[in-house]
Amino acid sequence: MTVWLEKLYEKIWRKIGGKPWTEIIRDEQKQSPLVFLFIFLGMGILLARMAEKNWWQILFGFLLGVLCGHFWW
Fold first, then answer.
1. Helix (H) or strand (E) holding 41
2. Which letter does DSSP use for residue 54 in this model?
3. Contact, 58 vs 48, CB < 8 A?
4. pTM, full prediction
């Protein structure tokens, strides 16, 4: 089963440019960082609305995630 998944991943990998999807997303993020900032901000606001009274804990977690992603990507 694992070999089959590896071959599928490699086939998809070669079709989309020969790079892992994480590198493709990183390159896109470096070209237009504001788009990704607004995407994650919107996701954070949406999640905070769904969380109701614990909204500040979730937004704090998102803030930490964005900071970690920004400094260590």
1. helix 33-51
2. G
3. yes
4. 0.49
Question: For residues 23 and 16, is the Cβ–Cβ distance under 8 A?
Answer: no
Residues 59, 44: contact at Cβ < 8 Å? yes
Give the C-alpha separation, 15 to 5, whole Å: 16
Domain containing residue 31: 20-72
b/e per residue, 1-30, with b = 16+ CB within 10 A? Answer: eeeeeeeeeeeeeeeeeeeeeeeeeeeebe
Within-domain flag for 10: no
pLDDT digits (tens, 9 = 90+) for 28-69: 889 989 998 999 889 878 877 887 787 778 778 878 888 888
Task: Report yes or no on 50 lying in a domain.
Answer: yes
Cα angle for residues 51, 54, 56 (degrees, 5° grid): 105
What the block records as the tokens of 27 is 């390159």
